Amino acid sequence: MKECILLSHVFIKAFEYQKIDKVNFALEHFRNNNPNSYIIVTGHGKKPNNLKTYCDYVYWPQKIIRSEINYGHPYLVNKGIDHAISKGFKYLLKTRLDSIHLIKDLFKYSLNNLKEKNYLTTQITTWNNPNLCDLFNFSKTLFMKKCWDINNWHCTNKSGLYYHAKNFQTACNQKNWNICITKNCVIKNIFNLKWIDLRSSSNWSIIKHHKSEIMENKLSQFTNYLWGTSEGWINWDEDGYLKSSNTWRKENLITEENMLSKENKIIDKI
């Protein structure tokens, strides 16, 4: 087994039964659609009951680690990365445990799209200011470990997006953020990752009635359920182009389209 997936970024309080249902479904979907992957799960709080059924390794303290929340879960992510390293996995895919991707063999999809770059990620990643998505990442495992260097990750006044970006710059040895991200990173749009957000109660109220179709990666009007859409953080049109954001300047968000434009400008200058 050469494929490895790390699922993280979830905590569950004692009476969050709906969250347990969501995570149990996500676990089943990841296992069924990634049968050849070694699945690592790290989380905290109340344990979902399907962990042993669908996962190969679990690190899940029962006490919620408050310092992890809203700062990228660096401690728990590192627990998963360290285990992947100990098992000898060359590449690692990391994503959220409370979500699914309507893609068969997500690891292979990511590997095929990484090409000659060091890192593959998605939104929220920005131009000009160092913000690098800390929720969906794919790279060589040892490179990801550098990007998640916990010694440079201070859970105080900045989000995980910032510390992730600064570690990425250090790993790439490049001080100019725009050049660093353009030369070393592949951006795949949330739309093309078919990244379905289970966190929203409005999403789950519909998704839970279509589990069999979703297990086959079929979901009508899936753009309505993409990660960040219910909050208005990221909105896509039906053709997969970024439509709007109520939190970020649209032109400052890195997409597949404007990344390609930036790459071409750099090539023209060489």
CATH topology: Spore Coat Polysaccharide Biosynthesis Protein SpsA, Chain A
Mean residue pLDDT: 95
Total individual domains: 1
Shape: globular
> How does the helix and strand content classify structurally?
alpha/beta
CATH class term: Alpha Beta
Spatial strand arrangement across the major sheet: 5-3-1-6-9-8-10
Q: Which short descriptors sum up this protein?
A:
270 residues, alpha/beta, Spore Coat Polysaccharide Biosynthesis Protein SpsA, Chain A, seven-stranded mixed β-sheet, 11 helices, 17% strand, globular
Task: Write a brief structural summary.
The chain is α/β, with parallel strands linked by helices.
Please render the helix and strand layout as text.
Layout: E1 3-8, E2 11-12, H1 17-33, E3 37-42, E4 44-45, H2 51-54, E5 57-59, H3 74-86, E6 91-96, E7 99-101, H4 106-114, E8 119-121, E9 137-140, H5 141-147, H6 160-172, H7 177-184, E10 185-187, H8 190-193, E11 195-197, H9 201-207, H10 211-215, E12 235-236, E13 242-244, H11 256-269
Parallel strand pairs: 1-3, 1-6, 2-4, 3-5, 8-10
Antiparallel strand pairs: 6-9, 7-11, 8-9, 12-13
Helix pairs in contact: 3-5
